Amino acid sequence: GALRFSIETREGEPLLGISGMYNIPVSEQLAFRFVADGDYGNSFINITDPAVADDRDEIEDIRNGTFRAKAIYRPLAVPGLEVVLSYEHARKDYLGSNEADIGSNNFELTNFADNSSETRLEQDIFSLRTSYDLSPAWTLEGRLSYTDLLTEIPNTNVNFDLAQDFQNTQAEFLARYEGS
Description:
Elements: E1 2-10, E2 13-25, E3 30-42, E4 46-47, H1 56-60, E5 61-73, E6 81-97, E7 108-109, H2 112-115, E8 116-133, E9 138-153, E10 162-177
Parallel strand pairs: 4-7
Antiparallel strand pairs: 1-2, 2-3, 3-5, 5-6, 6-8, 8-9, 9-10
């Protein structure tokens, strides 16, 4: 396994980062892997608009992260077969503005309600991949995945409020030739 910690400052505010991964070989046939990373702290944009005073701290916060888990199974009784089951969850916060002076040294948003938006993306992906080596040149592979993506633009911007949930299921079958 591995673990990483980081800290940086943006306009004097700390932004903390953590990442880690851990492999668990259960047997010669089965293994698990877990990976996570995240960033937590304050955005480098300072919101000075009094209209959003109650929500200012939450809007300025950065809480981004990803978690992945994977199980790999290669049964000794069926040489050439591999089954991979995986899950991923990701969350990302965005703060955007079309204010003309956002590029200035102070990075202040003086009119958040009319010129800016906060967006949060959350995504879950479940997938199953099965492959079987028919021969050294031919492999059959099947993939099945399900994605759930939630996009939110909260009502911290009084002009716009949106929540959209999108689900997708995908299946595919491949016959791959890697011969000469």
